[in-house]
Design goal:
Elements lengths: L2 E10 L2 E10 L2 E9 L6 E7 L15 E3 L11 E3 L6 E4 L2 E12 L5 E6 L1 E3 L9 E8 L6 E9 L2 H4 L6 E6 L7 E7 L9 E6 L11 E8 L2 E6 L2 E6 L16 E9 L15 E13 L2
Parallel strand pairs: 6-9
Antiparallel strand pairs: 1-2, 2-3, 4-20, 5-10, 7-8, 8-9, 8-20, 10-19, 11-16, 11-20, 12-13, 12-19, 13-14, 14-15, 16-17, 17-18
Length: 288
């Protein structure tokens, strides 16, 4: 008997529903798979579902852009732009696209790659809470996607004193691994306090969407992939004589870097363009 399977994601309130319709002859059979909405004990306070028209720019009320090709402290090779070629909405997701092309940015630096780096600085920041995103990452040598937070006092305290929480980073030569890290004074750069999460059975993060989150509360940061807690950090994890600086508001950053000291540069195996797809970002506060 011929069978056809149709599937579509639907949003109902805070729930995401996968609707399956199986047609067996003339009798359709429909079932629902419902993913978790607001996590128990939390209240949604900010989100972007990226549901605008395909090809359109991101919501300027929520996002701004870092632009230029100055290497960003990591010897990165791209010029970040605010063009829709590098960041746009598509089929209910944000797409950040790394492109191999020569471009001179507004800082008069010419680079051979372009990409985008979006941030909520001066638009949204929060101290403590659950920060979560559903992302399908790119792949390939020299590709470096990230979902992370920076202290909103960066302009006065400067990095790393402002603090940094890397909710998800991946370097393309490790397709099955993501890293959760935090940085502060005395534990920054290559000395950041880090943990890795590895997918089983040689699965690749670029093959599907995955959910990345931190739950950040006073004196504790918990790292999650697909709802699984894989690391809990407290001030006891800091190097001796250093300070825990995660006690003030942080803002959100999404970017795809090309090259840099950690991932290395693209090589002959790297395919362009590469893109990171972000289904949503949601930020919660703990219910009292």
């Amino acid at each position: 008997m011929a069978r056809k399977l149709f599937a579509a994601w639907k949003s109902i309130g805070t729930l995401t529903v996968l609707l399956f319709t199986i047609v067996c002859g003339s009798a359709p059979i429909t079932s629902l798979i419902v993913s978790a909405g607001t996590p128990a004990g939390w209240k949604l306070v900010w989100s972007d579902e990226f549901n605008g028209p395909s090809g359109s720019a991101v919501d300027a009320a929520k996002w701004s852009f870092d632009i230029g090709g100055k290497g960003w402290g990591n010897n990165e090779l791209e010029t970040y732009t605010k063009r829709t070629a590098n960041a746009h909405l598509e089929d209910g997701s944000l797409v950040i696209k790394a492109i191999k092309e020569t471009l001179t940015g507004p800082d008069n630096i010419t680079r051979n790659y372009t990409s985008a780096r979006l941030l909520t600085k001066n638009k949204f920041s929060q101290a403590y809470g659950r920060f979560e995103a559903r992302i399908k990452i790119p792949y390939g040598q020299g590709i470096w996607p990230a979902f992370w937070l920076l202290g909103d006092n960066i302009d006065t305290a400067h990095w790393p004193n402002c603090g940094e929480i890397d909710i998800m980073e991946n370097i393309g030569r490790e397709p099955s691994i993501v890293h959760g890290t935090f940085h502060g004074p005395g534990y920054s750069g290559g000395s950041g306090v880090s943990a890795a999460y590895t997918l089983p059975n040689s699965q690749k993060f670029s093959d599907d969407f995955h959910t990345f989150a931190v739950e950040w509360e006073p004196n504790v940061i918990r790292f999650y992939v697909d709802g699984s807690l894989y690391k809990t950090r407290t001030p006891a994890d800091l190097p001796a004589g250093t300070s825990w600086v995660f006690d003030h508001p942080f803002f959100i950053i999404l970017n795809v870097a090309v090259g840099g000291g950690w991932p290395g540069n693209p090589d002959a195996t790297t395919v362009f363009p590469q893109q990171m797809q972000v289904d949503y970002i949601r930020v919660y506060k703990r219910l009292v």
